[in-house]
């Protein structure tokens, strides 16, 4: 694609000298850019990302592995030159290789702090905005079901809302059993679990799950006993209880975790470092299961940011595989977490045709109890989509349709 060899390589005038004192420091290639601040790139990164046909496969947009069969980490730039008119950087390497890099490609990958932050918070994953229950009316957004099925811009806005705030309400969906499948297929595909592709939530005798009772359902995340936790929950209201109960409860648990980190740092440490045994044992139809996953309530990434909340009182196992002295501090920290989650929750009641969609890794959800009789039925159909599929669809929509950059409300 960007083949460079000695025959087509331009006359290279700038010679780079190597100084012994530079050996322990990043060796940087300075790239002047008349339209913006000059760019800098580590030399070994440029060599690793050569775009010539021997190093790069255009049809898969990925590097070829040959360089890594015997990687020379001491490789360095012998000469470099910029073609200002063509906007191309040319490099001759110490291993005899020649490379060229279009400026458009370099600008997207510039190592400047501003460019890295833009890529991570904009293109990689939209930056999340945390909220308390008192802010729910300001951050909530409503989408029309039919528009999501036919309008790519509306679809992008829905997925963006889910990525940033973790919750969105879809209205005017038909009272049919295939609504969630249509929505999931519009994004990618459903995530199947031990409860099937879709699951019905309604009071039933001999319930195999606490959610199938009419009793109050405390705040929780769905299925914390899975290592690969379903990412987005979709709940379609087919029938709603006419009793005062059946009210949805939602809390941004990342917001709660931030409060803990600021006000109760020791309890935050306990909840982010103490592994908990989460389990689901039972049968659904002909399938018998015994799922277990051990993980803290608050899960952090390498940079200390919240990436997952695990919480479900019925599905926290009686096994607690930690040292004795860790048990009481965990209970004390967990009591604070539950209290804060309740204090910062919001409440609302869906109506038939509503589809409540939310981030199952971030939000804890529940509902109040309700009266269940033959004439007062509450029936919710649920399904899941994985976040990988949502983020993929969001990026494709932005690139393929050249849709306007969305801003946070």
TrEMBL record:
Gene Ontology cellular component terms for the protein in this record: mitochondrion
GO biological process assignments: carnitine biosynthetic process
RNA-binding among keywords: no
Keywords in alphabetical order: Carnitine biosynthesis, Dioxygenase, Iron, Metal-binding, Oxidoreductase
Biased composition (Basic and acidic residues): 18-33
Region (Disordered): 1-33
CDD domains reported for this sequence: CAS_like
Annotated metabolic or biological route of this protein: Amine and polyamine biosynthesis; carnitine biosynthesis
Stretches assigned to the TauD/TfdA-like domain: 142-383
Cofactor: Fe(2+); L-ascorbate
Domain Gamma-butyrobetaine hydroxylase-like N-terminal, residue spans: 26-107
GO molecular function: 2-oxoglutarate-dependent dioxygenase activity; metal ion binding
Entry similarity comment: Belongs to the gamma-BBH/TMLD family.
Name of the protein: Uncharacterized protein
